[in-house]
Amino acid sequence: MTDEELATIVADMHITENAIGRHDLSLRDSLSVIYLEKLEEIHGISKEEMKREVELMMDNPKRQSEIYGIVIRRLQAIEKEVKEENKSKDKD
User: Is this model's pTM higher than 0.70 or not?
Assistant: First the structure.
């Protein structure tokens, strides 16, 4: 798996964790299962393979740093898009 591919998955995992955290504790386990299944479907990768790739990344600090640099840029770009969409909605 390339660093770009893994960064996309890790970014989606962070977005998913944030979304799950906004719900009641009683729903979080069920939502985690649903979101994980969706990530598998979107990225065409099993949860076991995701876990293995993340573990490999964590065992290599240089690669981890590079991937998280990509992740941060992706999340910042998404945040910027959302803010711009919200601004245009506020104007309407």
Answer: yes
Q: Give the containing element (helix H, strand E) for 59.
A: none
Q: Which domain holds residue 17?
A: 3-91
Dist. CA 60–CA 64, nearest whole Å: 6
Could you read off the pLDDT of 37-73 as tens digits, one per residue?
999 999 999 999 999 999 999 999 999 999 999 999 9
Q: CA 69 to CA 50: how far, in whole Å?
A: 19
Most distant pair of Cα atoms in the chain: their distance: 49
Q: How many domains does the chain have?
A: 1
CA distances from residue 84 to 76, 77, 91 in whole angstroms, order as listed = 12, 11, 11
